[in-house]
Amino acid sequence: MRVVLGVIDLDRRNLLKVAGAAGILSAIPLARYVAEADTRKIKIGMIGSGQVGSVLGGVWARAGHQVMFSSRNLDHDKKLATELAPNAHAGTSREAAEFGEVLVFSVPYSALPELGKTLVESYKAKVVIDTCNPEIARDGEIAVQALKTGPGLFEAQLLPGARIVRTFNGVSAEMMASAHEHPLRFGMPMASDDKKAIEVASGLIREVGYEPVLIGGLNMGKHLMPCADSPLFLEHTPEQIRDITATLKP
Prior knowledge:
With 250 residues, the protein is an alpha/beta fold.
């Protein structure tokens, strides 16, 4: 592997995008994650099962956690659950939110306001891992508002009462799926104000193959975006993340 300016070589990144989600999941060795796991086995509700949600949920199911996938495509979720049996299940977003001790929101940003209202009694006081990113072209006005307030702080408004940690935002699903293969252990930046959320997310991040690096509270979540002008975009070593974070404004 070649590292350029602290991130994975972009040629390799483009090659990885060719792989489909199903192929990604099947390539993840269970033994690696079981050996590295430092969290107790928990129930995880995946609110959204696109590329990021499928890969993360797949890793954690293979590591022995009970995972429930949910999305607008229940057939897709049932197929995922079958591939990852016996630790995976499929259901509605409400069922997944009620099922999970920890919830992972991995949906288009425009879906968050409605989910925030309809699932409030299910996610309140739970640890919520927020992988969502506002994109104006896709999400419209809600993305404009989020970027003005700052991703992280804005999710706290949309998901009142949740114990939010913002992470897995600036790295592709393909990179997450292959993180365990790298001889150099990369860091995964996260932003949160909640000690419990930080502890839980840290253990789950390690199971994916990254070293968690807290960059600050949710006000720092604005720096975790999948765009070229974000200094924490793509993969960096933990030391590089800390050095970059020291230059960022709250």
